[in-house]
Specification:
Elements: H1 20-47
């Protein structure tokens, strides 16, 4: 009796076709972008504090 072989199909990688240094640069830029978005968000919240009803 033969054993059936199942192949695993992986989804396409978002980094396919990119060089390693490009992947690292993209990751660094995404991290920096997230940091800058948080900074802008924090500054915006500081400029417009929520109005609480007492």
């Amino acid at each position: 009796m033969k054993k059936s072989v199942q192949w695993t199909v992986f989804p396409p990688n978002k980094y396919d076709g990119m060089a390693t240094d490009q992947q690292k640069e993209l990751k660094r830029l995404r991290k920096e972008n997230a940091r800058l978005r948080r900074a802008v968000s924090d500054l915006t919240l500081d400029m417009f504090p929520s109005r609480r009803r007492c």
